[in-house]
Specification:
The complex is a heterodimer of chains A (180) and B (199). Chain A has 180 residues and is mainly alpha-helical. Chain A is flat, with a radius of gyration of 20 Å. The longest helix of chain A has 39 residues. In chain A, α6 packs antiparallel against α7. Chain A is built from seven helices and no strands. Chain A folds into two domains: 99 residues, no CATH class; 72 residues, no CATH class. Chain B is mainly alpha-helical and 199 residues long. Chain B is built from seven helices and no strands. Chain B is globular, with a radius of gyration of 19 Å. Chain B starts with 22 loop residues before the first helix and ends with a helix. Classes of the chains: A mainly alpha (180), B mainly alpha (199). Chains A and B meet through α2, α3, α4, α5 and α6 of A and α1, α2, α3, α4 and α5 of B. Chain A: This is Chromate transporter. Chain A: It is found in: Cell membrane. Chain A: Keywords: Cell membrane, Membrane, Signal, Transmembrane, Transmembrane helix. Chain A: It is a multi-pass membrane protein. Chain A: Belongs to the chromate ion transporter (CHR) (TC 2.A.51) family.
């Protein structure tokens, strides 16, 4: 294993346990280290990788795999993923063990119930922030973007149909109305 | 000390639960959620586990996700580890985590390798732009749907809105929001429980 693969592993290992809020919250730290301090990636390829990881299906945390692959190929990809996900896996496992052991405990029940509004509130915030970021372009395009976001929110909220339909419709509307 | 906070059963208004899944069923459910998971795999994991396969109640899932949110790392990844453990131990955690990441990783690496071919195609860019808008709406709609089904009391709605505003509008760092509003919210739950117990 080369030195740079080891470096990648250690960097993501250290970042892992401070990344409350997932990969999105850690992106500024990644940019600082990967682009500014170490020069592993250019600013442009970093941004493009992030855009790809956000557009692709699945958790955005897979962006760390793109970084690892850029820096050191398949080995780098494996090193960054294991470094970033390993510690969180162990911690989540330990917390799950604790919560199952304390299943009948009223304090644990209050803690679990109390975190729900914060978590749901933060989910809504994620949707609003990404929706605002997607509302770009000319005046008409911004209007189209906002209508797609709004209609999709109502559809997913009120209907039992799979959200795949609203994603597909959004993409097709984009193709027709946002493609200038 | 505390009485249970919910006066009605957990699954009030929801169909009964199905038997707990084994590792292979977990892998299949999380693999589908990961592959479909444009703009937030969490939406698809919730849909699969709560609405389609009925392995968990809405409240139960929301609580696991809440814990996953305050732990470092992706909330849905943490939820996969915890849900997998509960239903099928360590093999369950590995199956759920593997399912969640494996196929999206393959798709993403294919995109990375092929991207130069169609990065400059305006049609692709326009489709992805529309998809991004719809995905943002999907995440918002999913949050509203969870809230509607959880039927929280007014004080918890206020705390949820405060979290949304703090994160989306004021851009308060996430750990700070959790550290400040988390304890307030737990206190509100305890207060509601005591009030319910006296009534």
């Amino acid at each position: 294993m080369s030195a740079v693969v080891w470096d990648l592993f250690l960097f993501f290992l250290k970042l892992s346990l401070v990344a409350v809020g997932g990969a999105n919250a850690a992106v500024p730290s990644m940019h600082h280290e990967v682009v500014e301090l170490r020069g592993w990636m250019t600013d442009a390829s970093f941004s493009q990788g992030y855009a790809l990881a956000s557009a692709a299906p699945g958790p955005n945390v897979l962006f760390v795999a793109v970084i690892g692959w850029h820096v050191a190929g398949w080995q780098g990809m494996a090193a960054s993923l294991i470094g970033f996900l390993g510690p969180t896996f162990v911690l989540a496992w330990a917390v799950a063990m604790l919560t199952q052991r304390l299943a009948g405990d009223a304090r644990m029940a209050a803690l679990r119930a109390g975190l729900v509004p914060v978590a749901v509130g933060l989910i809504l915030a994620t949707g609003l922030v990404t929706g605002a970021a997607a509302a770009r372009g000319t005046g008409t395009e911004v209007a189209v973007a906002v209508v797609i976001t709004f209609a999709s929110a109502i559809f997913v909220w009120r209907s039992r149909f799979s959200p795949i339909w609203t994603l597909l419709a959004g993409g097709l509307l984009g193709l027709v109305l946002l493609g200038q | 000390m505390l009485k249970p906070t919910a006066p009605t059963p957990d699954h009030a208004g929801e169909p009964p639960l199905n038997p707990p899944p084994g590792p292979s069923q977990l892998f299949a459910a999380f693999a589908k959620a990961g592959l479909m998971g444009f703009g937030g795999a969490q939406v698809w994991v919730r849909r699969a586990l709560v609405e389609e396969r009925r392995w968990m109640t809405e409240r139960d899932y929301a609580e696991v996700l809440g814990l996953g949110q305050v732990l470092p790392g992706p909330n849905v990844g943490n939820a996969a580890v915890m849900i997998g453990r509960r239903f099928a131990g360590l093999p369950g955690s590995f199956a759920a985590t593997g399912g969640l990441y494996l196929f999206p990783l393959v798709v993403l690496m294919a995109l990375v390798l092929l991207w130069q071919e169609f990065a400059d195609d305006p049609h692709v860019a326009a489709f992805m732009h529309g998809l991004a808008c719809a995905a943002a709406g999907m995440v918002i709609g999913n949050g509203l749907r969870m809230t509607g089904r959880l039927r929280p009391p007014p004080e918890l709605i206020a705390i949820g809105l405060a979290s949304t505003l703090a994160a989306a509008w004021l851009r308060v760092p996430l750990p700070l929001i959790v550290l400040v509003l988390g304890p307030v919210s737990v206190a509100a739950v305890v207060w509601r429980g005591r009030r319910g117990a006296r009534a």
